[in-house]
Amino acid sequence: MPWTLKATIVTAVAFGAFTASFDPAYGQTMPDPAQNQPDRAVGNQNSDATPADIDLEGTLELLTFTGPTTGRQMPYALYLPKGYHETDRRFPVMYFLHGAGTARRAELQDGYGLFQAVFYDRAIASGTIPPMIIAMPVTQGVSLWADAKDGSTLAATQFIEEFVPYMDQTYRTVAERNGRIVEGFSMGGNGAVLFGAKHPELFSAVISIDGAVHEWVTLGDYQRADIAAETFGGDEAYFQRYSPDHLMVENAELIREHGLDFIFVVGQLKSYNERLREVMESEQISLRYTDTTFRHEMGKLRRHDRDAIFSLVNKYFATAGE
């Protein structure tokens, strides 16, 4: 049963932060490579969700589906806009990809899932953006939203081949590219960019919030040999299948042809995003790039550029399905 959320936030739990309950093996420990210092990332997302008692106009559910091909389960949080069950209209979908970590129910309910829902729910309620569905699938560990070479994680296959079709089959979605935007924070920003660049026929726009848009060499720079080994089997050629830099070059013509829109809002992970920005500029791929001095904080970064984000949502979702 859908439940209307009224939650009391004691401690905001966010991907990208260490907390007492966060497994440091999967934490987003990404110091600025230019400053060789300890992790500066924090999960101060409750600025998106004050006061502490929050009422959503829409509903938020915690669900699980099993992929028909992989046979694997994928938990997800689902926001449905107010009135979804009282109409037969179709709604566009914002797909949100989380950062590195093992998602727990509390994080979907009172952490990043809540803050994602609140950010857009308030804009919908005020008439700033049109009603939409928000789908927040969960993958495990530090996959960068790629398929592991050994098959231990199939994040990309589950998302593209199973979860997106499942959403279109199960809910009243606008099942076309103008009815889909993919957004992500940190590792999820990497996933959003790679899925947009790899499948510009599926999505109209990409929003990356301080995306951990890795290149092969940066896995070493950030001492993430675990990602290189566990996800990509130490194989650089395999990694390139999921590299945003490589995909921007390989699919540049298709990306331009489809007119895929990109927004990058950048904080702590500046050097990664500057590098990818240069690649995109060289391929004449348009990008709104907002540089800030903020740390690795999704709430603050996204609010900083919310007018541009809402404008992008309106560009596609205001007329989606017409």
Helix content: 25-40%
Structural classification: alpha/beta
User: How would you sum up the global shape?
Assistant: globular
The average pLDDT is: 82
Contiguous low-pLDDT stretches (5 residues minimum) are 1-52
Radius of gyration: 18 Å
Number of strands: 10
Largest sheet: 8 strands, mixed
Run of helices and strands: EEEEEHHEHEHEHHHHHEHEHH
Q: Name the strands of the widest sheet in spatial order.
A: 3-4-6-5-7-8-9-10
Total number of helices: 12
Description of the molecule:
- This protein is α/β, with parallel strands linked by helices and 322 residues long.
- Helices cover 34% and strands 16% of the residues.
- It contains twelve helices and ten strands.
- It has helices at 105-110, 112-125, 155-170, 187-198, 216-221, 225-230, 236-240, 244-250, 252-258, 270-282, 298-304, 306-317; strands at residues 6-8, 53-55, 59-66, 73-80, 93-97, 133-137, 180-185, 205-209, 261-266, 288-291.
- The strands form two sheets. The chain has an eight-stranded mixed β-sheet with strand order 3-4-6-5-7-8-9-10, with helices on both faces. Strands 1-2 form a two-stranded antiparallel ribbon.
- A hairpin with a 6-residue loop joins strand 3 (59-66) and strand 4.
- The radius of gyration is 18 Å and the shape is globular.
- It starts with 5 loop residues before the first strand and ends in a 5-residue tail after the last helix.
- 49% of the residues are buried.
- The model is unreliable at 1-52 (pLDDT under 50).
